[in-house]
Design brief:
The chain is mainly α. The protein has two domains: 7-83, no CATH class; 88-150. The protein has helices spanning 9-29, 34-41, 50-71, 91-107, 111-119, 123-149.
Length: 150
C-alpha cells in the first residue's frame, strides 16, 4: 500500500499562491533589482533607504503571522503547524548568516529574488542560482561525510 503524500492538492495550491504573491511583492518592492539592493546596503555611500520600508512591512506581516500561528492549532487549509523549535545560536547559524549577507552584499541578490529573476531569464540570476544550488550540494556532501565519521 502506498504511503499518503504529505503534499496534497490544497497544500500545493496554497504554497503556489503564497509563492506567486511573494514573487509579485518582490517585483513591486524593488527587491529583485540588484542595483537597488546594493544601494540599500551601501550605508556609507549613496544609501537608498527605500527598502527599509519593505523590510519593516515584511517584519510586521511576519510578526502578525507568527503570533496567529502560535495560537492556532491548524493552518487555514487544515494542516498542522510545524513551527521551528530550535533557538540555538551556534557556529553553523553564524557562518550561514555571514555567507548569506556577504553574498547578498556582493551581488545584490538573495534566494527569493534570484528565483524571480531566473523566471525573467536574467543571466546573472542563473549564475547566482547555480552557485546557490552548488553550495547546497557541497553542504550535503560534507554533512554525509561527517555523519559517516561518527
Amino acid at each position: 500500500m502506498m504511503k499518503k503524500s504529505r503534499l496534497n492538492f490544497k497544500s500545493l495550491v496554497a504554497a503556489s499562491f503564497a509563492g506567486v504573491l511573494f514573487g509579485v511583492g518582490l517585483l513591486i518592492s524593488g527587491m529583485t533589482n540588484p542595483a537597488k539592493v546594493i544601494g540599500f546596503l551601501d550605508v556609507f555611500g549613496l544609501w537608498d533607504p527605500s527598502l527599509s520600508f519593505v523590510m519593516l512591512g515584511a517584519i510586521a506581516v511576519g510578526l502578525l503571522g507568527f503570533s496567529i500561528a502560535k495560537r492556532s492549532k491548524k493552518t487555514l487549509i487544515g494542516e498542522t503547524f510545524n513551527l521551528p523549535e530550535n533557538k540555538l545560536i551556534d557556529t553553523r547559524l553564524i557562518l550561514g548568516s555571514l555567507s548569506f549577507g556577504i553574498g547578498w552584499g556582493l551581488v545584490g541578490m538573495c534566494p527569493g529574488p534570484s528565483l524571480v529573476l531566473l523566471g525573467e531569464g536574467m543571466l546573472s540570476a542563473f549564475t547566482f542560482v547555480s552557485a546557490m544550488v552548488s553550495g547546497f550540494v557541497i553542504y550535503e556532501v560534507i554533512q554525509i561525510a561527517i555523519q559517516k565519521k561518527h
